[in-house]
Design goal:
250 residues; alpha/beta; Metallo-beta-lactamase, Chain A; seven-stranded mixed beta sheet; six-stranded mixed beta sheet; 26% strand; disordered N terminus
Length: 250
């Protein structure tokens, strides 16, 4: 759930990645479509609503979705899961500690005054330290309880930019330079925001846990790491370390 007014939709590129951000639904959850332009494999992160818009982006880039990832199981982040799974056939992934929360969709829908979405089966779990691969890219799962018990952030380190296939050897020099110049990227869900942190007064929230997660796991990341929150504008780890009023300097 958002702490502030979200940003507008945008198209961003890190390294050679295709990356589109679509604020969707009543609370404008930032849904991410992240694709490999060589293999055309993609992941979708937090398809909270407006699945037709998300599918239009996927079709425009001629992408094949191989995984649907959720940072946590609040309704504004999972409302479109079933439609996205039915449209793409891709497996649904979330942290197992949010399965109980995912089972409360009817109560969440009543609270936010919106129709209850269809429920998808969760196919795989996003556990601490595991990786998710698509095309020639991979990201690492960081379990960050606090906003919910099963909240996760998804870290794409610059050293994991590309694993070149043999037929791409001629491109190695160019892509290697691009990798060296590329930042780390964190898809933070509703754990860390620009100038704020996630709410802890909802289902599964804990102020002590969220601060511990941010300080012990996120503030250890490089300062130049680009942070894409679940709502609102992007920021960096360094910016939040220096200016976020909720955080002590670590």
């Amino acid at each position: 759930m958002p702490p502030a007014t979200p940003n507008q939709a945008g198209i961003l590129r890190e390294r050679d990645l295709i990356h589109e951000i679509l604020p969707v639904g009543l609370l404008q959850c930032n849904c991410h479509v992240v694709g490999d332009p060589v293999t055309h494999e993609a992941i979708v992160i937090d398809p909270g609503d407006e699945v037709e818009r998300i599918l239009e982006v996927i079709a425009r880039h001629k992408l094949k979705v191989v995984a649907i990832l959720n940072t946590h199981a609040h309704i504004d982040h999972v409302g479109g899961l079933k439609k996205m799974h039915d449209a793409t056939g891709a497996p649904v992934l979330m942290n197992e500690d949010d399965l109980v929360l995912y089972g409360t969709m009817e109560a969440q829908a009543r609270w936010i005054r919106m129709p209850m979405p269809a429920i998808a089966q969760v196919d795989e779990f996003l556990r601490e330290g595991t990786t998710v691969k698509w095309g020639n890219y991979e990201l690492r799962v960081i379990h960050t309880p606090g906003h919910t018990e099963g909240s996760v952030c998804l870290f794409l380190p610059k050293e994991a930019t590309r694993i070149l296939a043999p037929h791409e050897a001629s491109r190695t020099d160019t892509r290697s330079r691009a990798a060296l110049e590329s930042p780390n990227v964190l898809f933070a869900g509703d754990t860390l925001f620009a100038g704020s942190i996630g709410r802890t007064d909802l289902w599964g929230g804990s102020p002590e846990d969220i601060l511990r997660s941010i300080q012990t796991k996120l503030m250890t990341l490089p300062d130049d790491t680009i942070v894409y929150p679940g709502h609102g504008p992007a920021t960096t780890i360094g910016e939040e370390r220096e200016t976020n009023p909720f955080l002590r300097r670590v």
